[in-house]
Amino acid sequence: MHSEKPTLTAKTALWAYEGEEHDFISTRTFGFWLYLLSDALIFAGLFASYAVMDNPMSAFGHPLANGLLSASRGLIQTFIVLGSVFSVSVGSLGLKTGNKGLVLGGLAAGGLLGALFIWFGVSDLQVMAAAGNGPLESGYLACLYALLITHALHMGFGLLWIVAMFVHVARWGLDAMNTARLLCLRMFWQFQASVWVVIYVYVYLFGGAH
Amino acid sequence: MGTHHYDPTQHPEVRQGTILRYVLATVISAAAMVGAYYVAMSKPPLVSLIEELAGTLLVALLAQAALYFGLDVSRAQIWKSVSLVLTLPLFIISIGITVWAFSSLYGRTMPDPAIMSSMAM
Amino acid sequence: MQVAVEGPWSPLLGRLTLDAIPYNNPIIVPTFIVAALAGLVAVGAVLYYKKLGYIWREWLCSVDHKKIGVMYIILGLVMLFRGYVDGLMMRTQQAIAIGPDSPGFLGAKHGYLPPFHFDQIYSAHGTIMLIFAATPLLTGLGNIIVPLQIGARDMAFPYLNATSLWLTFAGAALVMISLFVGEFSSATWVGLMPYSEMASNPGVGVDYWMWAIQISSIGTTFNSINIIATIVKMRAPGMTWFKLPVFSWVQLTTAIIGLTAFPILTVALTLLGLDRYLGTHFFTAGMGGNFMLYINLFWIWGHPEVYFLVLPAFGVLSEVVPAFSRKALFGYPTMVAASFSIAGIGWMVWAHHFFTMGMGPDQIGFFSAATMIVGIPTGVKAFNWLFTMYRGRISYETPMLWAMISIVLLLIGGLTGMMLSASVIDYSVHDSVFVVAHFHCMVLVIGAAAFAAVIFWWPKVFGFKLNETLGKWFFWTFIAGSVLVFVPMFMAGLAGETRRLDYVFNTALAPYMLWEEAGVLVYLASVGFFVLMLIVSLWQRVPAGESPWGTERGLEWLTRTPVPFYNFAVTPHVNALDETSWRREAGAALRPTRYVPIHLPHGSGLPFILGMDVFAWGFALTWRIDWLIILTTIAMIAIVFIRSFDRNEGFIIPAEEVEAYEANINTASIFAEQPKRGHGLVGEAH
């Protein structure tokens, strides 16, 4: 492939005088997508730890998932998180028409449902801890808490982000920068639903049924 | 950098979203989870439990990838799709091989027969 | 729910007391005095020459990828020296403390270092050399070269780039301050479990080590995001994927590893942190903990990390060997494919670091075979470099010498690696210095390639070449030292010397220890020649001209020399893989005929402030100063929040100004002081 003789014609372009217009929004969303992939690997590490610890020896006399978690309560949480993601996603349709009310309304509804989800999860963990199955009691319980709390922390961080976006949209409207940020926020929120369905199926259902 | 050279409402990632996509993604994910819930409640043998749960999970994740994230091979989304496809094996490797490497560890390194029998599950 | 700590604790200073400062240690006090004097001289010089504003504006606030790269490399070189001194101390201890009759000095029974101090030194040596010397050196090179090779103005996220740099600095600063305040980890650079747990290691050493690598590896993850996004999104027009230079391809594969492997380290260290701070039982010996889980998570990162370091070295060889063979690289597509297969297979071999765990023959067989398979793409690369040299017109400038020795070291390190991949051999030499000698050969591949790269691209950044004569002295003393240290080490390892010995009980090993001591002293001479080379070259500053080596091939050489802060005066349209040599052969213009305005990002002090805040955060966590942890955490969130309101869109350099810079290129060097630029986009360019 290097053997061809260099040829120069009048048409050979040497300089891009017009400049290359880089797509600012796509670069940002792609960079954020890469962050999400690395974040997904954090969850992979936690899942691997959980899977290794998911045995009676690591539970150290405490129950495993089937004695700790309720699949039906988990299903309610699943509906809440899906509803939250649905709200944020539908709200983002307002970006098409510059409809600030739709965008902020979607974020508000999604944020409230997200807060409900966190409250639901945290109160479950409190009940577990009160029954003597706190995070310090065994290696298995530590992994279970680490997985659930890491997900809840992500949701909590998303809530902070939603609040920040209210300030930004109020100040600058739906300009290119805010559009890029809202697209990233939408991906971040959708990512929480994807992580949650894996947690639900693996920890609540598989762990609860075997 | 240069932020106001074009109209953000015309950006492909903005145009891509539709109400139909989001309704479908949400309904399919929810239905898959309800299905998974009933599979788990019926307590089938381990192999079919794993197969059926993995199937429902795959349906939910594929629906979300295609409809929530809008991953496809269009110019706007191709690199997200490629990077995801390149990363997917790493999830399987890091979780799967770890589980495999540890699967017989207690049995081999812990001599107590009572523990060994409980490890068999 | 924090765990109780041994020893005193106060709300104001946490675990920090005056006893934490080792003011009576005969080794640390002189070190501190020298470091403090050097620091005072540096600060004094900056103030005397009134350069504080320049350094703040042009360097600490800079988002220029070249300046960030230079600062990464300076950090890497300083830490390389610190790591070398650790090595010198270890070798000297082992040369003295042999057999029951060996003398003891400075309060040690044998040698001059008590066991606990010796343990800290080898832990620091490993941590520093891999995380704070090799990684910043290679990250810095990638930072400087990748945007130039793909014809971009800067990285995709310049501000994030500066953040990565200052996070790495914060981690390195934590390691350095552990020398003078408290202690460093004694649990090796990998953090042996359950020895790193609070029950057996109650001091602050493990905390220092843990937060230092946690912080810097988050910086590395950010940098990987940046490199991938830059290469995917910012290539110059005409640069299709198969016109992307090999160094940039390799940086892409490296960044994929950085993006995917480092999060697993984050998990391992966070779970260890939960054990040490909140009293959970992830990795403890009892209560259902599983300490092999930590080793597993650590090496899921740790092995890809090896390739994270060695792949950029391979990329450097793929640039330097063709340049000094005056031939195009042999087998470009196979080079790209080999890089991806090394990165991919490198993700599936991690358990060969603990074959002896007891995981069973199937698993051991899998990891053993996968490890051997990595040899195939690596061999493809080695043969490609040899075929590039075959029938080339080779000249032996210092970068080429480093590149060639790098290939030799790769052969030695690779073949001993093949021996270790066979689990039957590994079982008998596990944790012996044979393993140490093997991976030092591999790390020397990286070191040699990094020196080749620094010398090769030095004139691109600085505008003058490094002194060739002193460079050759540096090279030959370094190689002589390497042979003297590592050949006896291989032999001692096969003779049964185990790793990490503060006392060598077997007197039959004495000759090996003395040869190694001789080698490490020859290294000292090479350090001297390196410093002399820098001083003499800086003193002479012979202008290198537009073509310093006369054989450059890649797009990065199409910029002026020294490279101006805006990179290319006009973005080039790429026509060939080796654009510069293609243009020379085709007789095409190397310079544009007219100039257009250039848009660049503004600098910002926030990444630097964030780095300082994260350093304070790590320090507060190490010493468990609760109020400072809370304060610095709030400050971190506040800095991110404040940054989100920074709507500054950079500045425009008008075409006439670009023309003036190009006419007198030294005024555009990244070391030249630039006028303050107004905020906001004055005069829209497009």
The CATH homologous superfamily of the domain at 71-209 in chain A corresponds to Cytochrome c oxidase, subunit III, four-helix bundle
CATH hierarchy class name of the domain at 71-209 in chain A: Mainly Alpha
Shape of chain A: flat
CATH architecture annotation of the domain at 345-559 in chain C: Up-down Bundle
Helix percentage range of chain A:
over 70%
Query: In sequence order, what are the helices and strands of chain A, one letter per element?
Result: HHHHHHH
Count of helix runs of chain C: 19
Counting DSSP E segments of at least 2 residues, the number of strands of chain C comes to: 2
**Largest sheet, strands/sense/barrel of chain C:** 2 strands, antiparallel
> Helical segment tally of chain A?
7
Structural class based on helices, strands and sheet pairing of chain C: mainly alpha
> Which stretches of chain A of 5+ consecutive residues score pLDDT under 50?
none
Mean pLDDT of chain A: 92
What's the structural blueprint in terms of helices and strands?
The complex is a heterotrimer of chains A (210), B (121) and C (686).
Chain A: H1 24-53, H2 56-59, H3 71-92, H4 94-97, H5 100-130, H6 139-172, H7 176-209
Helix pairs in contact in A: 1-6, 1-7, 3-5, 3-7, 5-6, 6-7
Chain B: H1 12-16, H2 19-41, H3 46-68, H4 78-103, H5 105-109, H6 113-120
Helix pairs in contact in B: 2-3
Chain C: H1 28-48, H2 52-60, H3 65-96, H4 115-149, H5 158-177, H6 205-233, H7 246-278, H8 291-325, H9 332-345, H10 361-389, H11 398-421, H12 423-429, H13 433-462, H14 468-494, H15 510-540, H16 579-586, E1 598-600, H17 606-623, H18 626-644, E2 651-653, H19 655-663
Antiparallel strand pairs in C: 1-2
Helix pairs in contact in C: 3-4, 3-5, 3-15, 4-5, 4-6, 4-8, 4-13, 5-6, 5-17, 6-7, 6-17, 7-8, 7-9, 8-10, 8-11, 8-13, 9-10, 10-11, 11-13, 11-14, 13-14, 14-15, 17-18
